[in-house]
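Morning run. Coffee first, then this:
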Amino acid sequence: MNENGSSTVVHKTEKIKRTLNPTWKPFNISVMTLCGNDYDREIKIECWDWNRSGSHDFIGEFKTNMRQLTRGATSVNEYEVINPKLKKEKGKKYKHSGIVSLIECSVHPRYSFLDYIRGGTQIHFTVAIDFTASNGKPDDPNSLHYLFGDTPNIYEKALNSVGSVLQDYDSTKNFPALGFGARVPPDGQISFDFFLNGHDTNPYCRGIDGVIAAYKQSLKRVYLHGPTNFSPVIEHVAKFAENHRGGHHYFILLIITDGSISDMARTQDAIVNAATMPMSIIILGVGSEDFSSMEKLDGKVTSSDGTVAVRDIVKFVCFRDFLDDNDAILSQSRLAREVLEEVPEQFLSWMTMNNINPLNLPTVKPMSYNTVV
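And here it is:
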């Protein structure tokens, strides 16, 4: 209830059919949303009889507050549902329209993304770059990988724009940098997760400048080929994430690509698997190709066997939507906001799903609280 006597709807339960004794599912709601963090603020609960026609019948209402709800399943949380119209019509003959009893109410800290970072969780940033032939040869001025121009090519711009933002979340500033879709020396085998720095066992580059330098050197030593397979780089990062489920580490994979995915089914399987791990994926589309197939990955993905991802871990961004020669600073700011928009919620969904609090709790005060009713 608002201070002026009006009311604002903050939650609606599911509808339960064919019973006069319903039990509703537990739900989560922040204390701020429920009562503005005021434990004595009046909360009104209305009960309705659902009709398929949409013309639902009002059963009645009752009022309580957060302080009373937190006393749990006691007699103080058994409420008579009152219909004011029926009460007025029937007078003393009217008792109530039913009883609603609270089964459970508990309050839990709701930590923010920054609470976890302040608590010591480490973010690990990995880059994967598309080296398929559709990008064009590095010595072709029309190529997305053109190496000999006076200005950075589109991949360098993308790495600078997005990487410079993401690297601030990685305290080590050492980034694994992978390439996929090229024939690599010495035997010319097609690889979908080769190390850009040319090292056999160590994929790390120092800072985004180091990633860009390794990327440019790779263009001189590998042969662009194909196909555009995402699953190997996703599986590569997932192997590391799988061994760090305790809340100390979280992994972000940035894939920069120019076109459609060749292994969509296997990529969906890899994403569904990765969703069970501390991991997010950002796909950055460069060039002028049709990226409609990418958008189906930006949500809860379904694997080939029908399994639905337990959480949404993919964010797709089309780089050309943020290229503005008239205001490069504003464009980069808009791009950074778009890229990072979903990562904090994806991060929190993992921590919440696994009941993980910030590591250094004595020094971390939660910014808000969740109520489970």
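The radius of gyration is 27 Å. Good start to the day.
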